Amino acid sequence: MAQSTADRIERKRGIGGLAKQANPAFAVGAVAVPLIAFAGAVASGNIRALTYVHVMAGVLWTGIDLFMGLVLGPVLGGQEPEARADFFASFTPKMTFLMPSLATVTISGGILLALRLGKFPNADPWLAILTAATLLPVVLLIGYQFDALTDPKTLGVLGVAVVGSGAYLAATLPAFAMTSWWIVATLGIVTLLSVQGFGVILPGEVRIYRQVVSENPDVDLVSEIGMRNARLGGLQGLLQLAIVFVMVGLRWWTP
Predict the structure, then answer these.
(1) DSSP 105
(2) Within 13 Å of residue 228, how many CA atoms lie on the same side as its CB?
(3) CA 28 to CA 22: how far, in whole Å?
(4) Distance between CA atoms of residues 107 and 196, nearest Å
(5) Distance (Å, rounded) from C-alpha 173 to C-alpha 46?
(6) How confident is the model over 225-252, as a mean pLDDT?
(7) Which backbone phi and psi does 215 adopt, to 5 degrees?
(8) What share of the chain is helix, strand, coil (3-state, %, to 5)?
(9) How far apart are CA 38 and CA 125, in angstroms?
(10) What is the three-class DSSP state of 106?
């Protein structure tokens, strides 16, 4: 992981430095293409277009996660920490841009499809529960990973999340009613995927980047976080396979 001081200084420019390390064209495309495709499908009002974007994003998300967990993890597990750290130093910045955009489009597209197809009755209270069950753990996990649970910024973000989620729940829970059990199962899996992805994997990727641009990168820490993320990626892939089964049930086994 040897690098010049000039390289480290150049790479310390926040999101711009991370994008440069990932390759600027890749970083822009990884975020813009899925989001633009999703926005276009939503704006068109075409269910087939929305289904296509949702499925394609989901296939890519699932495939990459399974590859990381079932292929990449075991291969890298046999390497020395230095070799693993070198790989993750190059690989992680790309995943930092690609995977959150795929996850966002897949989840948002799935929820919107369920609503438009009439498969998600009594949606508002359940979406409020999903928001609180995802947002609050993610904020806490991010604070924990950066040893910043008591930092004023973390507490401020947590306060906003608590107030916002609480207001959403207060506005919708009076109308609470049971929805489809397929939807309940879907929301449970989506919550696990979101908390794991945005609360553990993504902050881990940022921690790897911060080590890479530091004066004295901790090779063992980079290797440890990278391998943890690869294993969690495999678990994410398995959860996504489970949600495929649930989606089939929702689409074909509900009225």
Answers:
(1) H
(2) 16
(3) 10
(4) 14
(5) 31
(6) 89
(7) -65, -35
(8) 85, 0, 15
(9) 24
(10) helix
CA distances from 244 to 22, 26, 62, 69, 186 (A): 30, 28, 10, 18, 9
Q: Distance (Å, rounded) from C-alpha 92 to C-alpha 212?
A: 10
Neighbouring residues of 4: CB distance < 8 A, sequence distance ≥ 6: none
Spatial distance between the Cα atoms of 251 and 255, rounded to a whole number of angstroms: 9
Burial class, 140, CB count within 10 angstroms (exposed 0-12 / middle 13-18 / buried 19+): middle
Q: How confident is the model at residue 6 (pLDDT cuts 50, 70, 90)?
A: very low
- Give the CB-side neighbour count of residue 175, counting CA atoms within 13 A: 11
d(CA 140, CA 157): 10
Three-class SS state of 59 = helix
Tens-place pLDDT, residues 136-191: 999 999 999 999 999 999 999 999 999 999 999 999 999 999 998 999 999 999 99
Q: Are residues 1 and 86 in contact, defined by beta-carbon separation less than 8 angstroms? A: yes
pLDDT of 194-204, one tens digit each?
Answer: 999 999 999 99
- 152: Cβ contacts below 8 Å, ≥ 6 apart: none
- Residue 155 identity: L
Domain limits, the chain: 5-121+179-252
